[in-house]
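input
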Amino acid sequence: MKLTAAIIFGTLASLISASYLPEFVIQDDNELANIMEDSTKLIKNCGDAKDLLTIDYVSLTPDPPVKGKELEIDFKGYLSETVPNGTYVEIVVKYGVVRLFQKKFDFCDKIQEIDEKCPIPKGDLTFTKVVSLPKEIPPGKYTVRAEIFTPKKKRVTCLIGQTVFPRMF
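output
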């Protein structure tokens, strides 16, 4: 059951950490954002009721993330259908208003990096992951938008994250 959350957060955490970018936070005012009541205010759901993944909560420790420190991500949700091989992620990362990169990649390939694999069975999902954030993250506002789709174009989830790393003097 850790598979879907591992896919979402582990994959994004690996990308972000490898790219010297902060962990993401999601900000959106749609009705699904209110479902995640116990979650960090930095992470919101940008999906809708048709998504295969219902997110109960996402918590970050520390909240907000701190460069040069470890970040623990706790996640709980429910997957209404099995996530098959061939599922993919579309991700956009911005620094301020500048788009750093936009990429589409195979979700199932990426989750193997965190010892998970597809297909991911439907049901309850829990996940805890610790990532080390580099000290070298440039100060500023970072935004990450990630959408995960099955090969039949059913959306698994949509997450938009945003955090600010202050200047250190």
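quick obs: Residues 2 and 126 are 5 Å apart (CA to CA).
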